[in-house]
Amino acid sequence: MSKAKLEYIWLDGYFPTQNMRSKTKIEENFSGKLEDCPIWSFDGSSTKQAEGNSSDCLLKPVAIFPDPTRDNGYLVMTEVLNPDGTPHETNHRAKIDDDDNDFWFGFEQEYFIMDNHTQLPLGFPVGGYPGPQGMYYCSVGGKNTHGRQFVEEHADICIAAGINFEGINQEVACGQWEFQIFAKGAKNAGDQVWVARYILDRLTESYGYYIEYHPKPVKGDWNGSGMHANFSNSLLRNAGSKDVYEAVCEAFRPVAKEHIAVYGEFNDQRLTGLHETASIHDFSYGISDRGASIRIPIATVERGWKGWLEDRRPASNGDPYKIAGRIVKTVKSAKIEATA
Fold first, then answer.
1. Residues 72 and 196 grouped into a single domain
2. What is the pLDDT of residue 227?
């Protein structure tokens, strides 16, 4: 009789930055299908999601991936529910208005790899600094490239798990890397980013590293970390009109503060108008402009205004569920002329 290891992953109740939690459920003769993953429970009083005198919260499986690192293992992303089956207040996935999966998202997750012993990014000497920015971005060679074996292993695990992993590259700062995830459906995109993060964090346990998602962990003339959100829906993919794109971008202007509120903690330290960012106090958009709040990719223009947009404001520690949910709401609010 075979036994499977199901790793149930959920987001806790810490605010404003939630953390991943997980525990293993052993199931006999498991089919590998999401519909055969039972609802489970956990002690919400230990995760800031319930009081001790009524501490049970429920875990509802919403996505499943094979776990290449464990024999007969699976990674199960879940939503947190109240005991009566309603979404918990910390469950932001359930709030996304994209049940038809019309929205497609591509998230670019930046992060720093930190050495557990020095508490510094890889490549940073104790008591000093490495060479200035310039040679780290997409570099090759041991002088400027740090952590490649770890990053390659993460990519291999994600691909083997069936995550729609689109690429990796070293970023502008020393010890900083990025991976990209694409998915059709806002909820699906969030699921895949969170599971890819889980794999990344768990892998650090074997290397003596940890991942720093803070958007500005190294002060001074160093790039911060973001999680650029590339997005489209059927309107943007088929628009064929500059006016439609400008109308969608303009819909973001009056709700800029609402977006920033869910785009990640400490983002003010990153969105300064420097290091390829727009100021947190401004809103702008432009074609091929990496210093704008929203970039209109040149590929979208060249395809006759059919494509996607890139919101460059989300921070690396942002919740993809919150980010996607807010973007979906704003795009749906855009006032498009009937003749467009």
1. no
2. 98
